[in-house]
Amino acid sequence: MTDSLSAAQARRVALAAQGFARPRPDVVGTRQLNLALTRMGALQIDSVNVFSRSHYMPLFSRLGSYDTTVLDRLLFARKAPYVESWAHVAAFVPAADWALFRFRMDDARAAYGTDPDGWFAQHADTVDWVRAELAVRGPLRPAQIERDAVQGRRGPWWDWDVVKQALEYLWRFGDVAIAGRHGFERRYALAEHVIPADVLANPVPRDDAIRELIRRSARAYGVATASDLADYWRIKDRPRVMASIRDLVDAGELREVTVEGWLSAGRPARAWMHRDAAVPRRIGATAILTPFDPVVWFRDRAQRLFDFDYRIEIYTPAPQRRFGYYSLPVLVGDDLVGRVDLKADRAQSTLRVQSAWWERGRPTDAAERVAHELRVAARWQGLENIAVSRWGDATVDLAGVLTEATRTERAPDVS
């Protein structure tokens, strides 16, 4: 049994655990989406929509082009099998997993909902009114509650920002759930109107919940440090994380391994490998990742696995950006070989590659593979053209391949 992994083996283990060792299916439907979601466990939500909404991207990265309305039905339909939770920050998780995060809701209530001098207590009237509105009227978008304010249902002391904050507190406490979205605007409802009754009636005790979450992060990562396992669900309780790891080792689900180049304080870092993790001989994937993909969402892990120093620069002033507004990591084989800053210019039906950069050690066919993936991405977004800027050391390579491919596609048939 392997007790040590090379750096390349660890990358392949991690990518296989996330589904990148599998060929993309010819047809993507509900079954394929559910399998990918199960493998990841959580689908992080982010509002930035330069190229694509972030929660659509991990499925595209793994499965290729698919109809996003099929995913919308899984996530947003009435009685959908998935629900938003504060899991890895705000994320979609199976509705059946709501109870696993009860301890986090309880912690939020203890921190923000019990202080008599705190915000929640000071705005008890607002909270009670919002809860009553949801009880009587069912799921509501914030704009609907805002309209009620304008129409005078509330006294002049009601403030919209206060109402919105009340909704967010109630959601973090588990009193309220998200009943889908309209566009990208949340629809809030009482938890009992969204979450299955048997799930609400059976909260999972804290120790059991953390142990189960660590088990799932180990399966989703394949091989990981304790910090990796904790970050998958943003668990801050280090003693319980370590106790969970020990329990899983004793149960034979994890075994401790060393990974080449993984260091802590100059010594080999402790890492654990899930018993179901595979060590593929190769990874043949090519993919563009969202910044909130599990492969890269923990930046320390991305650095350790891929020697990939990654930060998004949306809050960095334009003149100070190194790689672009919203650069996306590029996977080729078992390594992150570059990054591209993409924008869907729908008015011009053009995918704009606003910058593109290589990492060291890319394979010789990287430009051809990335260019092909850009064409797949453009078609997925319904865009007819691809335009490459001159910012970045990969732009000439990609522009040349894309131009040549366009010439070939447009060449007359002379056979």
Describe the SSE topology.
Layout: E1 4-5, H1 7-17, H2 30-40, E2 43-44, H3 57-63, H4 68-76, E3 82-87, E4 89-94, H5 102-112, H6 119-122, H7 124-137, H8 142-150, H9 160-173, E5 176-182, E6 185-190, H10 197-200, H11 206-221, E7 223-224, H12 226-231, H13 238-250, E8 254-259, E9 263-264, E10 267-268, E11 271-274, E12 286-288, H14 299-306, E13 327-332, E14 335-345, E15 350-358, H15 366-380, E16 385-388, H16 395-410
Parallel strand pairs: 1-8, 15-16
Antiparallel strand pairs: 2-4, 3-4, 5-6, 7-11, 8-11, 9-10, 12-13, 13-14, 14-15
Helix pairs in contact: 7-9, 11-13, 15-16
Q: How would you portray this structure in words?
A:
- The protein has about 425 residues and is α+β, with helices and mostly antiparallel strands.
- It is built from 16 helices and 16 strands.
- It has helices at about 5-15, 30-40, 55-65, 70-75, 100-110, 120, 125-135, 140-150, 160-175, 195-200, 205-220, 225-230, 240-250, 300-305, 365-380, 395-410; strands spanning about 5, 45, 80-85, 90-95, 175-180, 185-190, 225, 255-260, 265, 265-270, 270-275, 285-290, 325-330, 335-345, 350-360, 385-390.
- A 5-stranded mixed sheet has the order 12-13-14-15-16. The protein has a 4-stranded mixed sheet with strand order 1-8-11-7.
- A hairpin with a 1-residue loop joins strand 3 (about 80-85) and strand 4 (about 90-95).
- The protein is globular, with a radius of gyration of 23 Å.
- The relative contact order is 0.12.
- Residues about 150-160 and about 410-415 have low confidence and may be disordered.
